[in-house]
Write a structure and sequence with these properties.
Blueprint lengths: L11 E4 L3 H12 L2 E6 L10 E6 L7 E5 L25 E4 L3 H13 L4 E7 L15 E6 L5 E6 L3 E2 L4 E3 L5 E6 L4
Parallel strand pairs: 1-4, 5-8
Antiparallel strand pairs: 2-3, 3-4, 6-7, 7-8, 9-10, 10-11
The chain binds fe (ii) ion.
Length: 181
């Protein structure tokens, strides 16, 4: 546990074009459950429909948001394909408890017919299997019904108190140092 007053990033609120379609996707792929659903305007200050989805016992890990008066434009499949527009987000990620769970999720994505838009890949400049990128985690990426890019990963490196990277096997990676400790 970090000493930071704020110790983790938690939920994301994601705008979706079709609420039913998105609920079904997050239920079927990630086994999320619906905690609460509220129509736009139920609370005067909130003119959007909200669905609070959870993975475990915490009230929500993901909020699906739909604005009934907004004309949504399609998102490109590749975030960096945007040429014009406000700063958006590139992808968000879900962590599997271990590699076996990650492999199960990879099979599940294939069974559901989801397009894997990147990976499976090892994000590492040091691992012989690595793609040269960073984090030491194994990942694959799919798109949700609105082309939000979702990373499913396992085994991200920990950073020791001296800044050294330690991989999931407990191995300290020589020459791999965090920029700040
Ligand atoms: Fe990522």
């Amino acid at each position: 546990m970090t000493d930071n007053l704020v110790f983790r990033m938690q939920h994301l609120a994601l705008e979706v074009v079709d609420m039913e379609r998105s609920i079904e996707f997050y239920r079927s792929f990630l086994d999320m459950k619906l905690s609460e659903r509220h129509p736009a305007g139920e609370v005067e200050a909130i003119p959007v429909e909200l669905c609070f989805m959870r993975l475990g016992s915490v009230h929500h890990d993901l909020v699906l948001v739909h604005n009934p008066v907004k004309s949504y434009e399609p998102r490109p499949e590749t975030p960096s394909a945007d040429r014009v527009g406000p700063p958006s987000f590139h992808h968000f990620a879900f962590e599997c408890k271990d590699r076996a769970a990650w492999l199960t999720m990879l099979n599940k994505a294939e069974d559901l017919g989801l397009k894997i838009v990147r990976g499976p890949v090892v994000h590492s400049p040091w691992d012989p299997r690595g793609d040269g990128s960073w984090g030491e985690n194994e990942s694959f990426y799919v798109l949700d019904p609105d082309n939000h890019r979702i990373e499913i990963f396992c085994e991200m490196a920990n950073i020791d108190s001296d800044g050294t990277y330690v991989n999931a096997r407990g191995e300290r990676i020589e020459n791999a140092r965090a920029e700040e400790v």
